[in-house]
């Protein structure tokens, strides 16, 4: 080896070792020496891989709004990959356990928390700006997931076709037989939320009695929320399981204020969505920075009209169309420990009921 090239190689190795110790704003700065002559060359921007659900990554979701902002801050690239509904996102990570492609998982909520933690695919991380999140919304006390939005499950309906929905009993009307779309609790976080909502209202085993009656009203059980919403938009069903914050979308973008959410006298089950770092993430520093970014105004300000949920940063001003949304007088939620213990049993019982004649 020529002395000049040996000298350049020593410098390159030193640069690599030095770069491993340096971070700027939580983003590791990499340097390398590449090319046949060993000349220094700037590294390609690293890529943060984010697994999330379909609606977030779609052209109408929050993804296209927040990804360019984060890329400008981190000097990196972000690859957001849609994996279906949140339950399907988690299932994808479980399949990749030990050799994950993703650095961050987005969309795990309080209903899926126990399943996600027990699967062993996420690591603990508490962002430095966690104080922005109200204590009541910090659904993961062990610190695996950071909340970024919240909402309440509700049945959305076309008020030109269906009269007022104000209770679970109102879903059992003969006029609604085979008129409602819901989601599968095994593959969908809203579907699981609905099941837990009925347990919170009717207790165990009381929830089974409700579902035995309600299944007659159900036309379709879809794998995820997107499919149910598509059926509703196409006029295939006049009612579907969604959120109390869904009507602002229809008012804002479709001019359909007649699409409303029924506020139930029994109360509504809360959903808090969070994101976490994948165990074995190849870009841990970028993952941490992304999660901290999710609590900043640049991200939180995009939540209402892109996620159609409430931002966890309650100082964010809500748009005018959110007058069609509601926060229920009574918020329902089950003890996470009880959910962890009974969730599989409840889902299995639900499956038996829905498959029965």
Number of domains: 2
> In the CATH scheme, what's the topology name of the largest domain?
D-Maltodextrin-Binding Protein, domain 2
Q: Biggest sheet, in brief?
A: 12 strands, mixed
Global mean pLDDT:
89
Name the structural class: alpha/beta
How much helicity do the residues have?
Answer: 25-40%
Return the string of H and E elements.
Answer: HEEEEEHHEHEHEEEHHEHEHEEHHHEEH
How many alpha or pi helices?
Answer: 13
**What is the CA-CA span between the terminal residues?**
80 Å
**Can you count the beta strands?**
16
Subcellular location: Periplasm
Pfam families: SBP_bac_6
Organism: Candidatus Iainarchaeum sp
GO cellular component, one term: periplasmic space
Quick tags:
357 residues; alpha/beta; D-Maltodextrin-Binding Protein, domain 2; 2 domains; 12-stranded mixed β-sheet; two-stranded antiparallel sheet; 13 helices; 16 strands; 36% helix; disordered N terminus; transport; thiamine pyrophosphate binding
